Amino acid sequence: MEKPVSLSKTDGIALVTLNRPKAYNAFDLDMVRLAADTLIELALDPGVTGVVISGEGKAFCAGGDLRWISGCGENYGAAFHELAARYHQAILEIRRMPKPVVAAINGFAAGGGFSLALACDFRVMEASASLKQAYTSNGLSIDGGGTYALPRLVGTAKALEIAAFDEPINAEKALSWGMVTEVVGDGDGMNRALEMIRQINKGSLSSFAASKKLITDSLNTPFETQLENERDLLSWAADQPDGREGIAAFLEKRKPVFGNL
After folding, report:
1. Which InterPro entries match (predicted)?
2. Does the reported pTM lie above 0.85?
3. Which of 142, 153, 193, 242 has a CA that sits 20 to 30 A from residue 175's CA?
4. pLDDT tens by residue, 225-248
């Protein structure tokens, strides 16, 4: 029996594939547990320099599996409470991971799949793919950090519009609204996501890690605290091999050669 999340690696980049194509990669408890465990493993693996998340088949991810929820008895709230706990662990691992994480949106991303894509550092969306928050159309509220990421990407008014009317968002709109990083042709999402991580890896991974943490934390940090955080991580980065190499290269008027690992 195939696992609901598959993992492969190429050139130090991990490819995480949501693998329930018959259910449009909707997630049940087993799937989110495995997704969270996989992301924890990748965050700690020194041989992994970046992660691409995609979906098997026609969808990126259809979100929480409502058929699974309905099979948990009458207490839907308890089932969502447990499912969201595991799902949110996966989201936190993406945001905390000191490595680039790219969503390769190969089909529709709805509900929890919508929030999952927004949680990634970058989003490459194929031309025929679509986004839909979907929660409110099913009488539910948004989870997976969607209410945190969405207004910061598109603004409060547009985020509320998306929540209230829940219209499908095509690739052209998603790009113009700042929801995705880039739109590519159908079938090209994975390759472009890999290229993006390889480009980042030509630079300093320790510098990226510090920048990601500072930018993420800044959204909920007082200004004075943010300044102290910046000072601490600047000092940390300067003492890393990449920091020392970058300074030496500047002084010697040459291009730096970063090691990353």
Report:
1. ClpP/crotonase-like_dom_sf, Enoyl-CoA_hyd/isom_CS, Enoyl-CoA_hydra/iso, Enoyl-CoA_hydra_C
2. yes
3. 142
4. 999 999 999 999 999 999 999 999
Residue 163's nearest CA partner among 123, 118, 129, 121 is: 118
Contacts of 20 (CB under 8 A, 6+ apart): 4, 26, 27, 28, 31, 56, 65
Are 2 and 23 in contact by the 8 Å Cβ rule? The answer is: no
End-to-end Cα separation, the chain, in angstroms: 35
Residue type, 150: L
- Residue type at 25 in one-letter notation: N
Best CA proximity match to 118, nearest among 154, 157, 164, 149: 149
Q: How confident is the model at residue 261 (pLDDT cuts 50, 70, 90)?
A: very low
Give residue 11's region: left, alpha or beta (phi > 0; psi -120 to 50): left
Residue the block writes with tokens 């601490």: 232
pLDDT tens figures, 91-130: 999 999 999 999 999 999 999 999 999 999 999 999 999 9
Count how many Cα atoms sit within 13 Å of the Cα of residue 98 in the half-sphere of its side chain. 14
| Tokens encoding 146 | 């969607």
- C-alpha to C-alpha distance for 141 and 116, rounded to whole angstroms: 15
